Structure formats: structure tokens, C-alpha cells
Amino acid sequence: MKKFIIGTIVTVLLLTIAIGVQQGLLFAKPLPYDDEQKGLDTQITIHLSHVVAENTPKGQAASKFAELVQEKTNGEVKVHVYPNSSLFNDENEFQALENGEVEMIIPTFSKMTSYIPNLQVLDLPYLFNTDDEVHEVLTGSIGEELLNELEPFHIKGLGFWHNGFKHLTTVNHPIHTFEDLKGLRVRTMPSKTLEKQFEAVGATPTPISFSEVFTDLESNTIDAQENTASNIYSKGFYKVQKHMTLTKHGILGYAVLINDKFWKSLPPKIQKQIMEAMKETTDWQFEQAVEMNKEDLQKLEQQDNFEIYTMSNEERQRFKEKLAPVYDFYRNNVQNNDVLSEIEKIVSP
């Protein structure tokens, strides 16, 4: 009898558990919806690599672009941004894009002149006078014409971004006239036009990677460099130099590039949405670049032991005249001089 009672109890318990499990499966509430999981099986991922800090015109624009792409594609496309050369540096990013190791990069156009010599036109000294002139050239038909020259490399150019006008900074003595540059080792990007620019004033151009500029200044491997106020401040170049001269002798800009094979694999609808995000980002970015350079210049003015000198109009004119032969070098070494002529129609004399 005792065994019978125990067996009955066990049977009832097992039946109760079974019924409970069944009812739980039937009536359990569904798990809460996680919108981060939406479309993960079809989500397109873009890895975007660049070499500067996030708090720069390019860095902020990259983040803005990523936000707009996600918004306009309703989450179908996710752009992962890798700043500060964390994925590739400016020496190997173009090749990485060509090889499909990354989907997007934003190199300076100066870094691309070895591939596309015509881009050297944007490195010519004193070519532009205002940010508005730069915007008109880079976002118009001239900019489009230059980007189309990337096609043989199986790379598509989505647009140009602007960082601002470049100035000179030096370690030991200020630059009041172009003669003060004589004998200095000046860091440049690997552009023949930029190299000729400094050779014309008796300096020694020294092409090195952007990621190495701080340490090379600190170790006195180089004596000077050219850059925008935003890069000088964000990268802390003022900490290892004493002098800055506001010259506005050239511009610093970027080409936004995407691997062409990857681009062509995207549905037309996605391509259209990405281009809409690019146009919106570009217009926003130009305004941000101007404001950020103003703000960062003010921050540089507040730094101890860092002198900022404004080159006079007379000295700028002397500098400009001294650099005139660089234009002859450009005209003799590029395939298409029409681009320079088209730009000169837009910019004021």
C-alpha cells in the first residue's frame, strides 16, 4: 500500500510538471523586441578608416555620415568608423581600399597625387582665397571631374571634404618672411607640388606619415610642418613647438572613397541613400570646418609658450611671388591643365 501511495504521488507530480511546462510554452509572453537585432541577417556593414582624431572636421564628419547613413537606410547599413589610424595609416590605407581590406577611407588628396597627378592642382600655393571658393570647386563639376579619375583604380569617389587653410608651425624660430624657412626640414605629404613649394624657399621637404609628426617634432627630426589650426590643436603639435605663422598658403582637404566592387554590389536604393547622406554631410562639414578652425585657433592663442604670428599682406605677396614657379612645375608635369584654368575662372585674383 505504501509503495502504491508513493507511486501515485510521483505520477501526479510528474503530470503537474508536464502540464505546467506545456501551459508555459503556450501562454508565455513573447520576449521583448530588441531593435538592435532588427535586420541583422541582412544588415550591410561598412568599415570606414581615417587617420585623424574624432574631434576634427574630418573626424566629426565621419561620425555624422555614419549617423545619416543609418538613419536614411532605416538601419539596413551600419558604418563603423575607425579614427586615429586605428585600422590603417595614411601610408597603407589607399592600397587597403584597392585590395578590399576596408570599404571606405578619407585620405588627403595630397596623398593621392602619386596615383592621380592632376590632383596636385589642389596643392598649389595661394590658389584659393576663401572657404566659399573651395566649396564651389570641390562640390561642383571640377570636383566631380577629379573624382572620376579614380575609376582605373576600381575606386569610386563619393565627394570631397574640407579641413581649412594651412599655416606653418616651427620648433625653434618664427617664420616672419619666407627667408626664415631656408634650411629647415619641413614635414610635407608625399606630393611633388608640395615638395617643390618648400624647395622654392630653400627648405628641405620631408615626407612622413601624419601619425609620426608629433614624435618627429618632439625629437627634432623635423623643424617645421604645415597644417590647419584644428589639426595643430587636436594632435597637440603646439606642445612640441613654439611658433605658428598664419599664412593661409594652401588648403587641406580629403577625398571620400569607397571600394568600387563593394559599391556596385549595393542595391541601387542603398546607393542613392548613401549619396544623399554624403551630400548632406558634405554641406554640414564645410560649415563645421570653418567654425572649428576658428575655435581651435582661439584655443591655440591661449596656450602658454606658444607664439602666433600673422604674416603681413606685403610678406604674403612676396611669399606668393616666390612660389610662382611651382605653377610652372605643375603645368609641365600634369596631363590636364584645363582643371587649373577652370579653377582660376572661379577664384578671385
Automatic annotation (TrEMBL):
The keyword Glycosyltransferase does not apply. Belongs to the bacterial solute-binding protein 7 family. Keywords: Signal, Transport. Signal peptide: none annotated. CDD domains: PBP2_TRAP_SBP_like_1. SUPFAM superfamilies: Periplasmic binding protein-like II (SSF53850). It comes from Lysinibacillus zambalensis. The lineage of its organism: Bacteria, Bacillati, Bacillota, Bacilli, Bacillales. This is TRAP transporter substrate-binding protein.
